[in-house]
Amino acid sequence: MNLLHLDSSILGANSTSRVLSAAVVARLTAANADLKIRYRDLAAEPITHLSGEHFAAMSGGGEHEAPLSHDLAVGAAVLEEFLAADIVVIGVALYNFTISTQLKAWIDRIVIGGKTFRYGEKGPEGLAGDKRVILTIARGGFYGPGSPVASLEHAETYLRGVFAFLGVTKLEVIVAEGLRVSEVQRQAAMAGARERIAELA
Ligand SMILES: Cc1cc2nc3c(=O)[nH]c(=O)nc-3n(C[C@H](O)[C@H](O)[C@H](O)COP(=O)(O)O)c2cc1C
Question: What is the model's pTM?
Fold first, then answer.
């Protein structure tokens, strides 16, 4: 089985979502030593933002000069890795109420008509339903029910929507929140997230 592990935090060694995504991968590899891991650090090696040039070239085919040809090759590799993955683990940081721009650039390369979704007679149909996707989300504040800023949470809601659109039904979300509220809260959030990770099948 192939496991695709992505991190998208810009905080490097100080990142919480990275600690949690690594803990998920460690948990899954402990249960199945045969997992083949492909790791991508979307912050250390950013994918360029989708451009009109890229989109036109992707749709039109033909020969292209660098850097567009490199960009197309990276896009193709990223899509191939996603299609080949049985399990996808993503470390997700909440920045300014949504995902990092680096993760958005990755999503722009995997939401591709005819590959991961298509429009049929009954509307959109996801083609990536065979995958198990696990998100480890780190956020500084609180966004749960009753929070005055709950409606500003656009990372978990967005990713749930994207993966549902692609047909993914096996989506697990592990959240550590309130990380910047206090050290006590941070420790409690991490302990809670680690408990959830220990329970993963
Ligand atoms: C640029 C930036 C923007 C942030 N914006 C938010 C935010 O909108 N809401 C929030 O709750 N926390 C916010 N935070 C706090 C992060 O969500 C928190 O530090 C979390 O741990 C980020 O994940 P990471 O540690 O994996 O990078 C922000 C942090 C940074 C650096």
Answer: 0.96
